[in-house]
Amino acid sequence: MLLRPLRDTLDDAKAVTQVADEAFAASRADRGRPPRTVSERERAMGRALFRHLARTDGGGCWTAWDDEGTPVGAVLSTRREGTWALSLIAVVPRLQRQGVARELLAAAMTYGRSCLRGMICAPSDPRPAAMYRAAGFTLHPTMRLSGPVDRDRLPAPDGPVHEGTVKHRDLMDSVDRRLRGGAHGPDHDELLRHHGLLVVDDLAGSGYVYLHESGTVELLAATSRRLASRLLTAALLAVPRGTDARVGFLTADQQWAVDVGLAAGLTPANSGYLCLRGMRPPAPYVPSGTFL
């Protein structure tokens, strides 16, 4: 097996997509869940993300290939100031439980060895959870909120919320540093290409939230629970009608988000782990499964 850095090419992005599709389909089947249909638009978004990470974090993104030149594994990670984060790790089913994932994780963690803090969003599968714990991460169980938004039950935001643009990058980086010890930096550029952005900025503090058209709250950070609640309320009210909302990877520190979700009629459920090293769960905060 050969490990080599991910390149900023369409072929390498397609290779990561192929590996991730096989790995995640097998994981869903193991849990008795039906196959997930992925639209071409979602695939294009994924390929753009992989190429973005190859450009910004070449040393933290690796692919694994077998002797026949077939892609069999991939890992993507970022290093933002003092915070390292794992964006994706996947191995094709036929090579799982053979140490490939550990080799990939070790390569990615070497890239983050100078970082004081580390973050991973992990599924409920016990195998990756055990691997991250062995690598020194603390496992914080998380919840997700999902379902249709009941607009009649959800109170209006308690203050102004504005549409965000690239001009708010400094504001967002400042909030990131306060909550997670490192700005998202260039990741905001990529997020803005595929998500709507809402921001608050007043005498009480500041914050932001990204919302995907699929109804997923991708990333939320604010300087107070009150502002975070205001942002999440506005985001849920912006979810297209007929589309289920989804807010994931909420630790026990995010009860403000649970309260907003319950007021909107969303259903809570246990779901995975937020794995952290050198830090407490950032709050008020909703991590992105990709950019954390």
From TrEMBL:
Residue ranges occupied by any N-acetyltransferase domain in the UniProt entry: 1-157
PROSITE patterns in the cross-refs: GNAT (PS51186)
Domain of life: Bacteria
Gene3D superfamilies: 3.40.630.30
Cross-referenced Pfam families: Acetyltransf_1 (PF00583)
InterPro entries, per database record: Acyl_CoA_acyltransferase, GNAT_dom
Protein's name in the database: GNAT family N-acetyltransferase
UniProt organism field: Streptantibioticus parmotrematis
